[in-house]
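To: structure subgroup
Subject: Chain for Friday's discussion

All,

I'm putting the inputs and outputs inline so they're searchable in the archive.
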Amino acid sequence: MKDRIVQHPNRYRLTPVSGQNGVYDLEPVPGTVTQAGTPLNKATLLTDQDYAAIKSRGYVFEDSSPETTISKVLYTLSSFVSDNYTLATINFKDTEGNRMTGTPVQIFAASDNESPYIEFTVADKDTMQILLPNGTYTAHSKFAVLGYNSTDVTFTLSGGNQNIDCSSLFAVNAQMACIDTSGTYMLPPTWQNIDICLIGGGMSGSLAQGASSCGGGAGGYTSNKFNVSITNLEVTAVIGTGGASVAAYGFGNEGGTTSITLNDTVTYSANGGKKGSSYAYGGNGGSGGGGGATSDTSRYNGGSGGSDGSAGEQSSGTYAPFPGGTGQGSTTRLFGEANGTLYCGGGGGCSYQGSRGTGGAGGGGAGAYGYGQSTSTNRAQSGTLYGAGGGGANAYSSSWHNGPGAGYQGAIFIRKHVDAPNQVNTTNGVAD
């Protein structure tokens, strides 16, 4: 319905009625009419059709005549609601009492666990009031909220007013979260500025045929972003895969790119470990892979994988030793901090009848013992920490096969911003 809007709402003209002394007609003089408004009459308050439709829903009125007033209808409906509905006052604060403003919540009825009965975003209030039909419901956080553990809350409504505590939907777990599965996540409303560390996937080691040996896979690159302001709690993460072990001779598989999109349009990323100039060389990445040993009559050792952003080692030997891959040249520790966990170690190179290259610190896999040294314990090893590269390998004949080690997947770490010295925004290890 609309209000009547006129220039002069209380202005009238008195006009004498001819032949009737002291009797006047009252004539409105509204001036300019901006909006005519909705008239108050049966057609706009309660038509016969509306009344019949309400009765058909099962509501019983004390007076069933067509003259039933709007007040009786409202009274009957309120009685029906009080008998069959509950006004639920629901607490959606976290376990530390913080409001979870902007977090999507779904409520499922017991009769349908597939489709939510209602879905909404938590308001900036201590509690929310929701009118629901009596019955049993389950409250569920639509997205995983970083830094929280979530337990669904089941409750039964039986009429009147009820208080429901849903704080276990948002149980505070930590001030830092690790994402290692691609998907959509929610940031806590209390994390208005965040730090992000992205780790690309590690490369697998390469595979040589014959008397040659191959280089180790590079670790993934790292990118750090500090004090990022958040305007939208929803973030989308893509986790770079680790390079799978190869069966065909040649280069190992490169690691996948890790990325995060936030504030609807801003994307940050870190590349996975990359191939070197030759499959006998170590891969290039966050930390370089070790070089593979060359074939000769001597026993040559594979190069060790790089660590903490360094290049991989060159293999030993006087006959054309193969170089290790390049590293990003800056630390691969978590958030670039001196006490941060070390990731992205490079894979070691395969040996030629000598010692295999060890994997770089930070989870790099050791290279295989190559030509003539095949046993189950001598095979190349896979990366074991986020972004780590796999060890290189050699397949001298079809009777034995030292398969190369696989790279390890990437990850994203996010925390509420922490003020610390020497924080530098980087992309793939290079200052922005």
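Points worth raising on Friday:
The CA atoms of residues 111 and 136 lie 8 Å apart.
The first helix runs from residue 42 to 45.

D.
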